[in-house]
């Protein structure tokens, strides 16, 4: 890998793929068909794109039980412990409703209410992502969402993988549909006979899923439009080159457009990591994907000082940030922009992906400058509570009416003055 000095305009930000005009038109057509024709459209597109037409699109309890019986005890135990860790973390995010009072009888507050229904999209087909199920479902459950609907594209045999079903069963998800792609987003948004619409859709997917989520936003809420995965590593002379290289490749194997970047103050480390990346690539099963990612979106930047390195890290605003320096806690206050921050040499990115507890659904493409990981709060909404007494209206009514007239809204002013007239 080429070693480049840090410059003031350092950036690996890529435009989030908005799809081609043809792709956007295709997704619009799919969504409109699902809206108009419901299940028949979903069935038609599932056959067209997935090559199957399941006997039953909704997963039965028998299917869940059968998958669970086939799973080995160690796999189940690992899933259970991961769920426990992730649930414990998210339970600390719960917000309570609150109220405050004033001497004049005014009561103000905020009421926190869980969403009625959430839809979770789980990628499928050739791969299975049980971690995505956990990261989407747990915060919704902790928030108090009563109805959680999971959708995932079927395999070539028309079924979902056993590990997906086992994870769903462990979480207690009962409404599961073998639907993927833009048609799944349409089904969650508009519903059809047997599937009621949801209020919010979360979870990653391909460009067609991303476009569909973007289009239906406003009819339903969504989590985010995610781009390719990213990792940035901030390291000094104490970092171990083999660790850094392995962690960079852990993201590079996701996608040819994934980005893996090292920012370091130590040239010896930079050179050693460059060698390590090439060496580890040779034995990686997904070396073609990871190699393309490293070639096109990988980088090693050399900074003169730690302050320069931190500025570069904040400019990148990466999805995942590993801090492998002598005292990672000392630099933490200076890190402003990152989706998830991994402190210390033992805190590799996969620890957060699967097991530690924090959510792995994170902002990408520099959006960590203004957005956050998926949380319990994303599955709630807030209502403001306002209760004014006669005493409060008498004390402040004329000011409120005057404010309304500043904006030339006479009816607003009169609505308050009607209360004053009663006195």
UniProtKB/TrEMBL annotation:
Domain of life where this protein originates: Bacteria
Gene3D superfamilies: 1.20.5.1300, Nitrogenase molybdenum iron protein domain
BP terms from Gene Ontology: L-histidine biosynthetic process
Enzyme class: oxidoreductase
Pathway terms, separated by semicolons: Amino-acid biosynthesis; L-histidine biosynthesis; L-histidine from 5-phospho-alpha-D-ribose 1-diphosphate: step 9/9
Keyword Oxidoreductase annotated: yes
Family as reported in the entry's similarity comment: Belongs to the histidinol dehydrogenase family.
Protein name per UniProt: Histidinol dehydrogenase
Gene name tied to this protein: hisD
């Amino acid at each position: 890998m080429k070693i480049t000095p840090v410059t003031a305009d350092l950036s690996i930000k890529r435009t989030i793929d908005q799809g081609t005009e043809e792709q956007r038109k295709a997704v619009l057509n799919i969504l409109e068909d699902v809206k108009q024709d419901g299940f028949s459209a979903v069935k038609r597109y599932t056959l067209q794109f997935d090559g199957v037409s399941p006997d039953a699109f909704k997963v039965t309890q028998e299917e869940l039980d059968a998958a669970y019986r086939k799973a080995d005890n160690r796999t189940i135990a690992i899933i259970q412990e991961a769920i426990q860790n992730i649930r414990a973390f998210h339970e600390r995010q719960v917000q309570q409703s609150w109220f405050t009072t004033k001497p004049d009888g005014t009561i103000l507050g905020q009421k926190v209410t869980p969403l009625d229904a959430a839809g979770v999209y789980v990628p499928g087909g050739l791969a299975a992502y049980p971690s995505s199920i956990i990261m989407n479902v747990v915060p919704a459950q902790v928030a108090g969402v009563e109805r959680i609907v999971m959708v995932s594209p079927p395999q070539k045999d028309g079924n979902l993988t056993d590990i997906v079903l086992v994870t769903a069963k462990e979480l207690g998800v009962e409404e599961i549909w073998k639907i993927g792609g833009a048609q799944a987003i349409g089904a969650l948004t508009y519903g059809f006979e047997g599937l009621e619409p949801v209020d919010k859709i979360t979870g990653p997917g391909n460009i067609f899923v991303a476009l569909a989520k973007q289009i239906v936003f406003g009819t339903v809420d969504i989590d985010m439009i995610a781009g390719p995965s990213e990792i940035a590593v901030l390291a000094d002379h104490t970092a171990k080159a083999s660790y850094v290289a392995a962690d960079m490749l852990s993201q590079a194997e996701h996608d040819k457009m994934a980005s893996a970047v090292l920012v370091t103050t130590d040239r010896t480390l930079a050179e050693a990591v460059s060698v390590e990346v090439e060496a580890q690539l040779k034995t990686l099963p997904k070396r073609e994907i990871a190699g393309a990612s490293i070639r096109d979106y990988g980088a090693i930047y050399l900074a003169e000082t730690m302050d320069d390195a931190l500025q570069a890290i904040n400019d990148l605003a990466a999805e995942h940030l590993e801090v492998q320096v002598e005292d990672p806690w000392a630099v933490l206050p200076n890190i402003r922009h990152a989706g998830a921050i991994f402190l210390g040499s033992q805190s590799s990115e996969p620890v957060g992906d699967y097991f530690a507890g924090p959510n792995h659904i994170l902002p990408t493409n520099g959006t960590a400058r203004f957005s956050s990981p998926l949380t319990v709060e994303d599955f709630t909404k807030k209502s403001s509570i306002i209760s004014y007494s006669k005493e409060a209206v008498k004390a402040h009514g004329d000011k409120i009416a005057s404010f309304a007239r500043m904006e030339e809204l006479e009816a607003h002013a009169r609505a308050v003055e009607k209360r004053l007239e009663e006195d």
